[in-house]
Amino acid sequence: MAKTIRRGTGPRGDHNREEFQALVAKAAEGLVRQDGLRGLGMRRLAAVIGYAPNSIYNAVGDLDTVVLRVNARTLERLHDALMAAVSDDATPRDNAVSVADAYLAFVQADPQVWSLVFEHTLAPDSRFPEWYGQALTRTTDLVDRVLQPMIPEADERRQAVATLWAGLHGLASLSTSRKLAVLTPEPPRDLARLLVRRFLG
Questions:
Q1: Within 10 A of 60 (CB to CB), how many other CB atoms are there?
Q2: 135 neighbors 75 (Cβ within 8 angstroms)
Q3: How many domains does the structure of the chain reveal?
Q4: Which domain holds residue 170?
Q5: pLDDT tens by residue, 126-176
Q6: CB neighbours of 10 closer than 8 A, spacing ≥ 6?
Q7: Which CATH number is 25's domain given?
Q8: Contact 68, 28 (CB under 8 A)
């Protein structure tokens, strides 16, 4: 039987560990969306969900782990957004362009939460938990499958996924920070499409 996490303060009810982890991640995501990473702290998070801070430490982990839970949740949502952009009736190249469009749209719709995936860093000797690696791999594997008809060799395709991912991240970062306009007046979507088409051309 799953262990129940008892509430500290506030009429929040009791949750098993999995439910509590989801509750914490959702609340932390809301704080990041409101105030960025600087707005996320254990005491503030505990106050929002109506539990004692020790409940979070015991059932979820430290603040780094909370951030990873938020980021894993973001990657799952990104996977769903990219998956929805892929069509069985489209050509592989058109699907790749659609995935790039969906990536930029996802970032522009939720820049604070998305940026946490790249802004937050673990200590050099720390390792990503298995559940976080699974969330990341699930998303990158989707891009790998989209590119497979055009790049059949696995190692080359792995490099292509990393290259396109990094290129789109750069465009998204410059766009959300409003620095892209310093380089070019072109919309980021046009540049992303150019990047994908030239790369795969």
A1: 23
A2: yes
A3: 2
A4: 71-200
A5: 889 999 999 999 999 999 999 999 999 999 999 999 999 999 999 999 998
A6: 49, 50, 51
A7: 1.10.10
A8: no
